[in-house]
Amino acid sequence: MSKTDFGPSIKSRPVYGVLTPRPGSSHLIVADGEGGAAVEALFAQAPEMKAKAHLIYIPGANGTDMSTAMAALGAGQYNRAPTYASVRSRIVKVLGDGHMGLQVYATGTESLMGQVQRDAMEAGLPHDAVQTEHRGSLARRVQCVHCKGITENVTTDPFVCSHCGLNLFVRDHYSRRLAAFQGVNIDAEDPGEVPPAEERFK
Amino acid sequence: MSVGAAKIPVVVTEVVEVNSLIKRFRFVREDGGQMPGFSGGAHTVVEMDDAGTRRLNPYSLMSDPGDRSGYEISVRRDDTGRGGSAYMHREVRPGMKMLISPPVNLFGLDLRAKKHLMIAGGIGITPFLAQMAQLDAMGARFELHYAARDRELGAYMPELSARYGDRVHRYYDAEGQAIDLTTLLAGQPLGTHLYVCGPKGMIGWVLKTAADLGWPAGAVHSEEFLAPPVGVPFTVELAASGKTITVGAAQSLLEAIEAAGVDAPYLCRGGACGQCETHVIACEGEIEHNDHWLTDDQKAGCRHIMPCVSRFKGAKLVLER
C-alpha cells in the first residue's frame, strides 16, 4: 500500500505501492525529487542489487535535489538528468535493449511514475510489472481534453491550460497511455464563471 | 446452462488418425453456415451421448482462426480417464451429428506483446496451432518450443517445421532432448509474453522458472484443462432446488447436478474459468478442491466449490444451487 493517502477516488485513479526488491537480471530505477529516499530504502533492503542497478535521478520541480546522495549510493550505472523529457530517449533505449527479467522501479511524483510506466508499456511490459512508490509533491501532469496539450506540474484546480488557455477542471480520470490526468473546461456553458483556483496538489 | 449462445449442431466431416494416441476431428455446421469467429487459444465443449451418459468435454480449437468453414480439434485417448476421449476415438465417425458449444477463449494471446514465446508439451500443442496461424497472418513475432515423448507421438511436428521453419523447436524425451528453459527465458527481449500448455508438471516448471527469473506475472499465461477425477460417491443437498443427489464415482458434481435436471452455469468444465463457482451453505467434512480457480484462502474457507472438478468427503454438504 502507498504511504501517501490520496483519499477516496474513482477506479481510474492510479494507486501506488512500496518498492520491494525482486529477483531479476538487472534493475532500472527511475526517481525524481523526494523519490530518492525510496531508492535509499530499496537499496538498504537488498544491497546486492546495486551492482546490477541502473539508477536515473531527476531533481524535483519543487527544488528537492538528492543528486549527491544518489551518486554516492553505488548503483552500477548512475545518471542525473534535468527533466524526464531530457532522459526519455535513454530510458527507451535501456528498455529496448533489455531482456525479460529486467525489473523496472519508479518513485517520486505521479508524473514521473506515469511516464516510466507508459514507456515500459510501450516496450511491451504489462503495466503492473512496473513497481511504483509515491514520494513528494502531488503536482499532476494533466492533458487538456480539448486541445490535447499536456501541462506539467499542475498544483491548482482549476488551472489555465498552458497551450490553449481554457480554464480546466482537473479530474481523477487518468490515462495510462498518455500518463496524464484529464483536464476538462469548467466554464464551457457560462464563459467567465470560473471558481477560484485552490491549491489541491501541493 | 452454458453462458452465451445456444449449442451449435454440427456434422463430423473428417476423422484422421494422427498417431497411435491422437485423432483429429473436423466439424462443420449442419445448416452449412459459417462457424462463429474465434481467436487462437479458444476451446469448444463437445457434447457426447455415451450410451445414455452425457459427457461434455472441452477441447482447444486447433484450426486456423481465419477459416470459418469448420472447427478442428485433436483428442488424445486417455485409457485411464472417465471415458470422454475413449468415446471420441471409438464412436465418432464422419457423417455423425453432434452438438458443440460456441468458442470460449481462456488462453488468448496478449497482442500488446513484442514477441510470443510458446512452450508446448504433448497434446498441449493444440491451442498453439491456432495461435500460430493467427500470429503468422498478422506478421507477429513468435517462437514455439514443443516437447514430445518421441518422434511418433510428436503430433504435427513435421508440418509445423515445414510451415514455420526455424521458429519451431522440437524436443524428443526419448532422445534425451530437453528445453534449456533458464537460458531460453533469460534471453528473451523485453516485451515477450510466455505461453505454456502441457502436462501439469511442465506448466509448474515453466511458471516457477519464469517467476524465479523475474518475469512479471502478467506476461506469463498457462492453460491446463483438468479432467474431473474419479472418486468415492458422495451425497449433496441442493438448497435452492430442494433436491438431494448422489454423485457417482466416475461422475463429476456438475454432471450429477445436471443429471438431476438442475440448471447450473459452466464454461470450461475443467477447473479453469470460474463460471461454475457455487456457494457452500453447510459443510460437515472435507471438500476436495481440484480447481485452478479458487484462491488458497477460499479453498481453506469451505464457502465455495467448483462443481466441475471438485468432490467431497464427509457427512453433509449443502450447496446454494
UniProtKB/TrEMBL annotation, chain A:
<dbReference type="GO" id="GO:0046872">
    <property type="term" value="F:metal ion binding"/>
</dbReference>
<dbReference type="GO" id="GO:0016491">
    <property type="term" value="F:oxidoreductase activity"/>
</dbReference>
<keyword id="KW-0479">Metal-binding</keyword>
<feature type="domain" description="Dimethylamine monooxygenase subunit DmmA-like N-terminal">
    <location>
        <begin position="9"/>
        <end position="130"/>
    </location>
</feature>
<feature type="domain" description="Dimethylamine monooxygenase subunit DmmA-like C-terminal">
    <location>
        <begin position="141"/>
        <end position="184"/>
    </location>
</feature>
<keyword id="KW-0411">Iron-sulfur</keyword>
<dbReference type="InterPro" id="IPR054582">
    <property type="entry name" value="DmmA-like_N"/>
</dbReference>
<dbReference type="Pfam" id="PF22289">
    <property type="entry name" value="DmmA-like_C"/>
</dbReference>
<keyword id="KW-0001">2Fe-2S</keyword>
<keyword id="KW-0560">Oxidoreductase</keyword>
<keyword id="KW-0408">Iron</keyword>
<dbReference type="InterPro" id="IPR048037">
    <property type="entry name" value="DmmA-like_C"/>
</dbReference>
<dbReference type="GO" id="GO:0051537">
    <property type="term" value="F:2 iron, 2 sulfur cluster binding"/>
</dbReference>
<protein>
    <submittedName>
        <fullName>Uncharacterized protein</fullName>
    </submittedName>
</protein>
<keyword id="KW-0285">Flavoprotein</keyword>
<dbReference type="Pfam" id="PF22290">
    <property type="entry name" value="DmmA-like_N"/>
</dbReference>
From TrEMBL, chain B:
<keyword id="KW-0411">Iron-sulfur</keyword>
<dbReference type="InterPro" id="IPR017938">
    <property type="entry name" value="Riboflavin_synthase-like_b-brl"/>
</dbReference>
<dbReference type="InterPro" id="IPR017927">
    <property type="entry name" value="FAD-bd_FR_type"/>
</dbReference>
<dbReference type="InterPro" id="IPR039261">
    <property type="entry name" value="FNR_nucleotide-bd"/>
</dbReference>
<feature type="domain" description="2Fe-2S ferredoxin-type">
    <location>
        <begin position="234"/>
        <end position="321"/>
    </location>
</feature>
<dbReference type="GO" id="GO:0046872">
    <property type="term" value="F:metal ion binding"/>
</dbReference>
<dbReference type="InterPro" id="IPR012675">
    <property type="entry name" value="Beta-grasp_dom_sf"/>
</dbReference>
<keyword id="KW-0479">Metal-binding</keyword>
<dbReference type="Pfam" id="PF00111">
    <property type="entry name" value="Fer2"/>
</dbReference>
<keyword id="KW-0560">Oxidoreductase</keyword>
<dbReference type="InterPro" id="IPR001041">
    <property type="entry name" value="2Fe-2S_ferredoxin-type"/>
</dbReference>
<protein>
    <submittedName>
        <fullName>Ferredoxin-NADP reductase</fullName>
    </submittedName>
</protein>
<dbReference type="InterPro" id="IPR006058">
    <property type="entry name" value="2Fe2S_fd_BS"/>
</dbReference>
<keyword id="KW-0408">Iron</keyword>
<keyword id="KW-0285">Flavoprotein</keyword>
<dbReference type="GO" id="GO:0051537">
    <property type="term" value="F:2 iron, 2 sulfur cluster binding"/>
</dbReference>
<dbReference type="Pfam" id="PF22290">
    <property type="entry name" value="DmmA-like_N"/>
</dbReference>
<dbReference type="InterPro" id="IPR036010">
    <property type="entry name" value="2Fe-2S_ferredoxin-like_sf"/>
</dbReference>
<feature type="domain" description="FAD-binding FR-type">
    <location>
        <begin position="5"/>
        <end position="110"/>
    </location>
</feature>
<dbReference type="InterPro" id="IPR054582">
    <property type="entry name" value="DmmA-like_N"/>
</dbReference>
<dbReference type="GO" id="GO:0016491">
    <property type="term" value="F:oxidoreductase activity"/>
</dbReference>
<keyword id="KW-0288">FMN</keyword>
